[in-house]
Design a protein that fits this description.
4 helices; alpha+beta; 31% helix; five-stranded antiparallel beta sheet
Length: 166
């Protein structure tokens, strides 16, 4: 098992050695512990690298490892062929990543909805809950490949339509 983890780690280092963060290319940011962030990691030149299930599963396994061993708390995620969206926080601060701190409930739900709809907008699936490598299945209570901590929607009135799209 240890050898498998090392080979997965080595492969991920190769895959992500050229990851660029959509915003702030070349800048360094500190991610503070116990703050929640929206992050997008892209493959160099937006190449569709994650097109096979086994490639996607490597990323899922790495996220699970970070959840179990590195204090990563994931509230939203979506793995597309060329990029990964995360809404997460951690108990351990780190740098060299561009991340947008989700400082209000409204911004949090805007980013969560953006991630939620990404496979539909990209025409990968017709319904968001049909995409296996996304948070939507968690929020719909369907079988999923990665357990996350689902956020509770804000309190709203019956007249508030589309509160996810605010």
């Amino acid at each position: 098992m240890k050898q498998k983890q090392q080979s997965i780690g080595g492969l991920l280092n190769i895959i992500f050695s050229k990851i660029n963060f959509i915003m702030g290319r070349g800048f360094h940011y500190n991610i503070r512990k116990d703050k929640t962030y929206f992050m997008t990691m892209t493959v160099e030149d937006w190449i569709d690298l994650f097109t096979r299930v086994n490639q996607k599963q490597l990323i899922v396994d790495s996220l699970k490892y970070c959840q179990e061993n590195k204090g990563l708390n994931i509230f939203g995620w979506c793995l597309m062929p060329s990029h990964l969206h995360l809404i997460a926080n951690t108990k351990i601060p780190w740098d060299k990543n561009h991340a947008i701190e989700l400082y209000t409930e409204r911004v949090t739900w805007q980013k969560l909805n953006y991630i939620h709809r990404n496979p539909v907008v990209d025409k990968v699936v017709y319904k968001e809950q049909d995409y296996l490598f996304s948070l939507a299945r968690n929020y719909y209570g369907l079988p999923n490949v990665l357990e996350i901590d689902c956020l509770t929607p804000p309190v709203t009135t019956v007249s508030s339509r589309n509160f996810f799209n605010t």
